[in-house]
Specification:
The complex is a heterodimer. Chain A is an alpha+beta fold. Chain A has helices at about 55-65, 105-115, 120-135, 150-165, 180-195, 210-215, 230-235, 240-245; strands at about 20-25, 30-40, 45-50, 70-75, 80, 90-95, 170, 200-205, 215-220, 225-230, 250-260, 265-270, 275-280, 290-295, 300, 310-320, 325-330, 340-345, 360-365, 370-374. By secondary structure, chain B is an all-alpha fold. Chain B has helices at about 1-30, 50-60, 65-70, 70-105, 110-120, 125-135, 140-150, 165-185, 190-200, 205-215, 215-230, 235-240, 250-260, 265-295; strands at about 30-35, 40. Chain B has a two-stranded antiparallel ribbon. Classes of the chains: A alpha+beta, B mainly alpha. Bound molecules: adenosine-5'-triphosphate and magnesium ion.
């Protein structure tokens, strides 16, 4: 089976659905979005990830039309959106607070947007029923929002924003209030809906696992900037900065100076420690400051010094965290740095091979770590 | 035990302040006028023994109520009062809603001041405020002086001592009762609901009709009852601002009591007024109850 890989951002012939062109948004003196340009393509599931206050909601509100960019332009299908009021945009937003109309039933909430379009009655009914079915809310159609659970309310909000089959759907922390299980179910439901309807999704989330699960691309934001926008795998394996590496997942970051060797660099990171070696394409002059970011699952732990590996360091176990499927070890080097490593707990009830204060060896290959300029 | 006494206190309160006076008035309405002090008979005198008390009940009858149906003054006064109360409630709503809306949408730091301005008139005597309207509305009053001086009219408008003056007086007096409940409903309105409505294709105006108005409905209903109920029995405003043609039941009541000294008929008028008011009062309580349920 040769399935076409969905990567419109790599295709120069593809026209983006949304284009941010040098968009800046200021509130008074405060710069919420700082001169950002990026594209979102049709049928993407674009996730915005970043710390609180970095400007995610502001981006969404500009797309929905509740805020206007201070400078720059936002284009939807090539057309400047600035003069179009929110009620005329083919964009629907699912609010973080759901913003369900408390005086209307679930059914009427979902039908609200359709009625505004002056759709004929039988069509509205068919569409609402379809939405109720999709979000598994059939038996709650007659209830008011305060008579259903939080998770059901969230699905009503989703159904309501989906009902008009918008070109673009904005979801602001849509799963924030759900428990882990329901959250996961809903994530898969969302991806399902996205596949069935072909709508373009932009989703804001605080939960990076969620972003990794649902998104075609993840944009990591910081202080009004998109630091990196890429596929979940590339964001995780090839972060373009220490900020992204540190923000996504668990990581050990070692600071050092680089000297070129064998299509890579030796990294001198501490007095009295052997230099580490990492393959890398980046351009660093000899003696330049650099960072090596290594994911814990890429580091092996052993009692004896492993042979024939690119990197091996010795240290003592400072801390062990048992997480069920895996255990994380914090290993302290004699020079004070702490390196995190993970092992899978493949056997049930086996005795742990290592315990606190044990001297252990950590090893990894020369492609395991990502070298970043300092 | 403690709970029982806690419940008992409000009931005793109601009994002392509402039920007992009502029963006294009701009893007077069943009596006959007499040239005595107080001006009605029979009087209940517990010293005279069992037989007298039986006689006392034998003397009570409904003839005053029958009398009310024979003179069309009374039912005309009731109808006219209902009419004036109804229309002034509508006018108060039309004036009060925009004010409440403006207050709810004012910047945060302005709201306490605006609230203060709404409540401020309560700090001066109601009677003085109504009197001052005479100074504004009379033929030589400020309003006519102003309109004449800017040349909008050539003859002074005759407003004082007409029903118009009564409407103005009622709207002015009861406006805060309309504004406050509507304001409290609008203030709680989540602005993201309006954004959601716009997002789903409403214009600002449709969003107002489909979201703001229904969600302030309980405030509107509460405000209307708070104006309608006291306006129906209003006496001071029609007697100070109204003319000889202004017929309101409060005024009739006053005249029966103090001009005719016919306490029994006056009491009968009051009892009927209360019966008329019970309907809106019960509806008002229902509305409050529903609101509490929706909130809780
Ligand atoms: N109307 C406003 N007036 C002034 N400042 C604002 C306004 N709206 C947002 N901001 C500021 O802009 C910045 C970005 O806000 P935004 O709501 O986009 O953050 P966010 O990334 O969505 O955060 P969170 O994850 O906490 O929701 C914040 O520092 C916020 O204080
Ligand atoms: Mg936000």
């Amino acid at each position: 089976m040769s399935e076409k890989i969905f990567e419109p951002w790599n295709d120069p012939n593809e026209k983006p659905l949304i284009q941010f062109q040098n968009v800046t948004k200021r509130f008074g003196d405060f710069v919420a979005i700082d001169n950002q340009s990026f594209d979102i393509y049709a049928q993407e599931f674009f996730a915005l990830l970043g710390p609180s206050g970095c400007g995610k909601t502001t981006l969404m509100r500009m797309l929905a039309g509740f805020e206007a960019p201070t400078t720059g332009e936002i284009l939807l299908a090539g057309q400047n959106m600035a003069p179009i009021p929110p009620n005329k945009r083919a964009v629907n937003m699912m609010f973080q607070s759901y913003a369900l109309f408390p005086h209307l039933s679930v059914w009427e909430n979902i039908a609200f947007g359709l009625k505004r379009d002056k759709m004929p009655k039988p069509e509205i009914e068919a569409r609402v029923d379809e939405m109720l079915k999709l979000t598994r809310l059939e038996q709650f159609a007659k209830r008011k929002p305060h008579q259903i659970s939080g998770g059901q309310r969230q699905r009503v909000a989703l159904a309501r924003s989906l009902a008009k089959a918008p070109k673009l759907l904005l979801l602001d922390e849509p799963l924030g209030a759900l428990d882990a299980k329901l959250r996961q179910d809903t994530q898969f439901e969302l991806m399902d809906i996205q596949e069935k309807t072909g709508t373009t999704f932009v989703i804001v989330t605080h939960d990076q696992e969620e972003a990794m699960t649902v998104a075609s691309r993840v944009a990591v934001m910081d202080h009004g900037h998109i630091v990196q926008a890429d596929t979940p795998a590339r964001i995780y394996e090839m972060p373009n900065s220490v900020y992204v590496a540190d923000f996504i997942g668990d990581v050990t970051i070692l600071k050092g100076t680089a000297s070129p060797r064998d299509g890579g660099y030796d990294i001198h990171f501490a007095e009295g420690q052997p230099a580490l070696h990492a393959k890398s394409d980046i351009e660093l002059s000899k003696g330049a400051a650099c960072y090596l970011a290594i994911r814990p699952e890429k580091i092996a732990i052993s009692a004896d010094k492993p042979e024939g590996v690119a990197n091996a360091v010795q240290g003592k176990i400072l801390d062990i965290a048992y997480l069920g499927n895996i255990s994380t070890y914090h290993v302290e080097l004699p020079t004070g740095q702490v390196i995190k490593t993970q092992t899978a707990n493949t056997r049930r009830l086996s005795r742990r091979s290592f315990t606190w204060e044990d001297q252990v060896w950590l090893s990894w290959t020369d492609t395991a770590g990502v070298l970043l300029a300092g | 035990m403690r709970r029982a006494s806690l419940i008992l206190i409000p009931y005793l309160w109601l009994l002392a302040l509402f039920l007992v006076p009502f029963l006294i008035v009701f009893k007077i309405s069943l009596s006959d006028t007499a040239l005595s002090i107080p001006p009605y008979r029979p009087q209940l005198d517990f010293a005279t023994g069992w037989q007298e008390i039986r006689d006392f009940f034998g003397h009570l009858d409904f003839e005053n109520f029958t009398f009310l149906t024979t003179d069309d003054l009374y039912w005309k006064a009731y109808i006219s009062s209902l009419q004036i109360a109804f229309f002034s409630t509508i006018f108060t709503l039309l004036v009060g809603y925009p004010i409440a809306y403006g207050m709810a949408n004012a910047p945060d730091h302005w709201r306490p001041t605006l609230m203060m301005l709404v409540i401020l008139p309560f700090w001066t005597s109601f009677l003085i405020r109504v009197y001052s309207w005479i100074g504004i509305l009379s033929n030589e009053g400020y309003l006519n002086q102003l309109l004449l001086s800017i040349g909008l009219i050539s003859e002074p408008l005759h407003i004082l001592n007409t029903n118009t003056a009564v409407y103005i007086g009622i709207v002015y007096t009861y406006l805060p009762f309309m504004i406050l409940p509507i304001y409290s409903a609008l203030e709680r309105l989540d602005t993201s609901l309006l954004e959601a409505a716009e997002d789903l294709g409403c214009s600002r105006l449709t969003a107002f009709w489909l979201v703001t108005v229904p969600l302030s409905k309980n405030g509107i209903i509460a405000g209307c009852f708070l104006v309608f109920i006291p306006a129906l029995g209003e006496f001071v405003i029609p007697s100070l601002l109204g003319g000889s043609k202004t017929l309101m039941i409060g005024k009739v009541l006053w005249e029966e009591f103090f001009n005719n000294r016919d306490w029994p008929v006056a009491s009968a008028v009051a009892v009927i007024l209360l019966l008329i008011l019970i309907v809106p009062i019960i509806l008002f309580q229902r509305n409050e109850q529903k609101q509490r349920e929706a909130d809780g």
